[in-house]
Amino acid sequence: MNKAARRDGDVDILLGFGSNLGDRRAALAGSLRRLEQVAHLRRVRCSRLYATAPYGVEDQPDFLNMAVRAQCALPADELLRLCKTIEKEFGRRPRERWHAREIDIDILLYGREQINTAVLTVPHPQMHLRRFVLLPAADVAADMVHTGRDADVARLLELCGDAGRVDVYDAAPCPPDSDHQATVARERG
Prior knowledge:
The protein is of the alpha+beta class and about 190 residues long. It has one domain: 7,8-Dihydro-6-hydroxymethylpterin-pyrophosphokinase HPPK (Alpha-Beta Plaits). Helices cover about 30% and strands about 25% of the residues. The protein has 5 helices and 10 strands. It has helices spanning about 25-40, 75-90, 130-140, 155-160, 180-189, and strands at about 10-20, 40-45, 50, 65-70, 105-110, 115, 120, 145, 150, 165-170. A hairpin with a 4-residue loop joins strand 6 and strand 7 (about 120). It is globular, with a radius of gyration of 15 Å.
């Protein structure tokens, strides 16, 4: 794993969140709040929520998807471990690939790093092919660069040939351009 250039110990990250079982909006908002608490995310920006057709296995409910851009001081492998722990906390059960999920949290970009381990590949290897990932990502991270493709998110969206349905569903579950930690602190207090 390569070291990313960090400012004040933080790296710019882009996460993808999705849910298609239960109270999808609550799962997205709750898992983000929990991740903020345990990963100490800063400068959190959330995309709008998007209703999207299922990918891979079509006989299942629509997903709600969002993207989150934040600053994080954790190493990528530790961030992944926390994401997987939070997925379990929010009821995710093991299922076959592309099947229904209570919550799914993916590390899409981790600064400009390229990581390829047995458990983590960053940039996410399929993000450039999926409109349901790129459209929310463009809301908050249009300028972030996918180092493997040498293009920013906005350009990847322009080039994406995916015609799957992606519709704006609702406003962001957190303010799109503010430090969401203040909101989390108010909710706890």
